[in-house]
Specification:
seven-stranded antiparallel beta sheet; 5 helices
Amino acid sequence: MAADPRWAWGVLLLACPLLAFWWSSAADEPDLPLEPKHEAATDAGNPNAALEILPDLARTDRGRPIELFRVSDPNAPSMKIPPSELSRMQLYKVSERLLRMGPASASYNCHGWVFAGGRYRLENPNDVDVILKDNGYVAATVPQEDDLAIYRSPIGVIVHSGLVRAASDDGLVLVESKWGPLERYIHKPDPLPFDVTARCTYYRSARRGHLLRGLEDVKKTPSPRDSSAARDGNP
């Protein structure tokens, strides 16, 4: 039978549709998750599963406690950026001129860099509002170097924070901020690649630096612009 050409052609005619069906089914199968399913399920039930809470470490100038977090598992799903956001950030980095100021790290976020020296994460946006109130910050129409750059959603929720690094008379403003678990960049104020609807407001205070009380001895995450020990404690 194997030597009979008619039998061979019959096998081919039968096998080709089956191979085509298998190929199309395999192509439609979703990619396997990068993390084991039990880790993803645990993290979905508790967004802060990878974080250790430090409730008594820091406080505002009026003494109100601010919850900070230490990362216990930097590779947990909650420490990663969703693929859609990551794609927008990558496109933004290609289309805009950015200055990279620090390496990628999940150990601190944007608020943790501004108010905790880049050593911890500050997760609750409401706590940022408390800090603004208790530490004497007022909105500034014309930004100056070292002002806060606070980004809010259309409904007023704080979604991002940074520091003004340059503000010229001709209107040029540059902000330095930490992009989630990614790098820290100097960039133009608007728009944010991960939230194009957010708008920036600048804040200023008479206090020295932006570190929370209780963190005076925390050595901040270094930045190339910091050239002397005299600036320690001013993120």
